[in-house]
Amino acid sequence: MEPGATMNHDGNHKPASQASQLFSRFAQATAQWTGHPAAFLGAILIVLIWIISGPMFNYSDTWQLVINTGTTIVTFLMVFLIQNTQNRDILTVQLKLSELVLAMKGAENRFAAIEDLTDEELEELHEECRARAETTFHHLEERRGKEAGPRTAARKQ
Question: Alpha-carbon distance 132 to 17, whole Å?
Answer without folding.
Answer: 44
